[in-house]
Amino acid sequence: MSSILTNSSAMVALETLRGINRDLQDVQSQISTGKKVANAKDSASIFAISTVMQTDVDSFKQISDSLNLGSSTVGVARAAAENVTSLLQDMKGLIVSAQEENVDRSKIQTDIDELTLQVQSVVSAAQFNGQNLLVGGGNVSVLSSLDRDANQNVSASSITVNRQNLQSANATVAGTTIAGAGAITALTAQSVNDGAAQTITLTQGALVTSNTAGATSGYTVQVGTETVTFAAREGDTQNDVARNLKSAIDALGLTGITVDLTEVADPTSTDVTFTINNNSGGAITVTTTSGDASTAGGGLAGISDVDVVTSNVTASAALDDIEVLLQTAIDASAAFGSAQKRIDNQVEFVQQLTDALTEGIGALVDADIEEASARLQSLQVQQQLGVQALSIANQQPQQLLALFQ
Q1: Residue 113 near residue 158, CB atoms below 8 Å
Q2: How far is 86 from 77, CA to CA, in rounded Å?
Q3: Largest Cα–Cα distance of the chain, in whole Å?
Q4: d(CA 39, CA 44)
Q5: 31: buried, middle or exposed (CB in 10 Å: 19+, 13-18, 0-12)?
Q6: Nearest to residue 382, comparing CAs of 11, 12, 19?
Q7: Using CA atoms, how far apart are residues 66 and 143, in angstroms rounded to an integer?
Q8: 379-388 contacts: CB < 8 A, separation 24 or more?
Q9: For the chain, percent helix, then strand, then coil, each to nearest 5?
Q10: I need a labelling partner for 205 at 20 to 30 A (CA). Which of 307, 330, 370, 388 fits?
């Protein structure tokens, strides 16, 4: 039935043309934006997933900057620690040469003092953007990752880098007397006769943490009128405390005064003792205290006391001291090297992860331009045919006029 009121053919042709135009608009949008999902209207779920992933990619780029900053900071500290190690090796060579009696020890001492000043200069200058990992205690954290679980909970991860205190300043001891683990036998002007000895005990257990921020246990021993101090550092045990106090007393070069040290395999379960022997020809007094250290002891504390001039005893003690100092610097270099390697590995991983995430986002939202180009040409042809079909359909009612002529 033909009707001048309802043109079914035109309606079908018009609807077909509208569909073609919609598809053509989508393809043109893909070609112009390069994305098949440019906004939430295109695909709400894909848009949500890709947007979350893109924010993670942006975050990882910031994390990469943080890791590069951390690597540079640790790299400066490592280079400085290695330089200190080299200087201490030079110092050890001088101390070894001073073991001979027919050398000019005063000139050797001058060289040692200059090397000591250079070590102090290197430690003070080893900073990057104001951060010096060779000074003080504690640690620093380097932002290393952004972790997202299946429930979309996000947490940040960090790489912890421990400071390696290579300061040479002697610590000042003050504060409340330490009781329990790490406490030293408390002596108040204990008189030790000639030919006698005084044994001092360091109580078993883990060294207590000081009430002063960044400090640990501090120890003072006074032999006659001479006083030595030592502030324990993080990771030290009673063996380290006793060894350093012995070295400090030996370095005094007191006539007739010797120290015997008994180290133990496990200072947390066995007391550590050292004995001060008096063969000076008269009575001496020994005083000991332990308390909070107002500043944490530097790893190179005592380097300024290296003495090869005073006597054969001090020259021999200097050899023992430099071995301890050298090992401290070597350990610091190794620690920083390991930390920097880990950070650099994380930098590489973050870059690979960022690339993988970016590739995944592309697979979700990027348009296939080759396919879009082919579809564009096809839809343009369909559009032209649709226009012609609509034109033909619109002409059909006009044919009814012939019936009335």
Answers
A1: no
A2: 14
A3: 152
A4: 8
A5: middle
A6: 19
A7: 6
A8: 379/20, 379/23, 379/24, 379/27, 380/24, 382/20, 383/17, 383/20, 383/21, 383/24, 386/13, 386/16, 386/17, 386/20, 387/17
A9: 50, 20, 30
A10: 330
Beta-bridged to residue 140, according to DSSP, are 161
In the block, residue with structure tokens 């490592």: 78
Q: What is residue 335's DSSP assignment?
A: H
Please give the Cα distance from 78 to 335 (Å, whole number).
Answer: 8
User: What are the backbone angles phi and psi of residue 368, rounded to the nearest 5°?
Assistant: -85, 100
Q: Which stretch of DSSP H or E encloses residue 155?
A: strand 154-162
- Side-chain half-sphere of 4: how many Cα atoms within 13 Å? 5
- Could you tell me the two tokens for 82? 């290695």
Enumerate the β-bridge partners of residue 159: 142
Q: With 0-12 CB in 10 A as exposed, 13-18 as middle and 19+ as buried, what is 304?
A: middle
3-state secondary structure of 260: strand
What residues contact residue 34 under an 8 Å CB cut-off, 6+ apart? 366, 367, 369
23 token code pair: 């598809």
Mention every residue, 6+ apart, whose C-beta is less than 8 A from residue 269: 204
Would the pTM count as exceeding 0.85? no
**Nearest Cα to Cα of residue 218 among 145, 160, 142, 295:** 295
**Residues whose CB falls within 8 Å of the CB of residue 64, separated by 6 or more in sequence, listed in order:** 347, 350, 351, 354
Distance CA 62, CA 142 (A): 12
Residues facing 283 on adjacent strands: none
